[in-house]
Amino acid sequence: MSSTVMIDGQLVSPERAQVSVFDRGFLYGDAVFESLRSYQGSLFALDEHLVRLKRSAERVAIALPVSLDTLRNEMHSALRAHGSPNSYLRLTLTRGTGRSLGLDPELADQPLRVLLVTALTPPPSEIYEHGIAAITYRAERPSDAAGVADAKIGNYLLAVLAMRAARALGAREALIEDSQGQILEAAAANVFAVISGKLVTAPESAAILPGITRGHVLQLARATGLEVELRAIAKSELASADEVFVSSSLRELVPVVSIDGRAVGKGQPGPKSRELLRAYRARAAHAR
């Protein structure tokens, strides 16, 4: 099934969809975005994604061109137009086209919104059954330097390079290590570890991107009686962790069974990640 494209609220054919080469999202990565998925025609956690989009836009001083209600209606409309019950949606908001070239944000005053809808191609079932390999990748996140780590910004070059390094080593994920030797996030996901019977993940105060899926995982963990500890995970702790997994809206929860060539726990998906994945899928399937 082909993609559905909506630009500034208007449906356009993918072949005719165009964005100016002078758009600041293209020139400078001057944009924010949200990615989410539908389950049997229903957009999961849509309001949470829209609230985060608004917060991201505020953090980088891009004015929302329309209300959240309008964005919500546009997303529902684009999803209906596409017709696939299980879809991937990406909404991008750029600062727009500048009156002239230059970094000054005041050069642009007409934000652009682009909505893409495609049929969801889920990850292969094998990654949930057998887990994936990951590497650690030391880097400073661009959002840290800019002071907007909690915003979902358009600059994903670090994630691209980290995933390139992972693929070169036969891995499917990269866990980003900061200058203090702490693992705060993955290339494009949040990171969890089960250590001494507790579910450990970095707190929002650590300047992580607060993932929507991450929030649901924390709720589900607490509901099942699993103790949660919000703190950074030291790279040195990974070797002794019982389980490690990453979470994102499109991939849900993916178990990590080896890191830098060393097995995590027993080298297979653990019971906590399996239980949380089942609970998350049940919540997503019944949400309306």
The description of the largest β-sheet is:
10 strands, mixed
**What is the CATH topology classification name of the largest domain?**
D-amino Acid Aminotransferase, Chain A, domain 2
CATH superfamily of the largest domain: D-amino Acid Aminotransferase, subunit A, domain 2
The share of residues in helices is: 25-40%
Low-confidence stretches: none
Count of runs of 4 or more consecutive helical residues: 8
Indicate how many domains the architecture comprises: 2
Number of strands: 16
Quick one: CATH class of the largest domain? Answer: Alpha Beta
**What is the mean pLDDT?**
94
SSE order in H/E notation? EEHEEHHEEHEHHEEEEHEEEEEH
N→C terminal distance: 24 Å
The fraction of residues assigned to DSSP E strands is 25-35%
Which overall shape is indicated by the principal axes computed on the Cα atoms? globular
Q: What's the CATH architecture of the largest domain?
A: Alpha-Beta Barrel
Please write out the topology.
Elements: E1 4-7, E2 10-12, H1 24-28, E3 31-39, E4 42-43, H2 46-59, H3 68-82, E5 87-94, E6 112-119, H4 125-130, E7 132-138, H5 142-146, H6 157-168, E8 173-177, E9 182-186, E10 190-195, E11 198-201, H7 212-223, E12 228-230, E13 233-234, E14 243-248, E15 252-259, E16 262-263, H8 271-286
Parallel strand pairs: 7-8, 7-15, 11-12
Antiparallel strand pairs: 1-2, 1-6, 3-4, 3-5, 5-6, 8-9, 9-13, 10-11, 10-14, 14-15, 15-16
Helix pairs in contact: 7-8
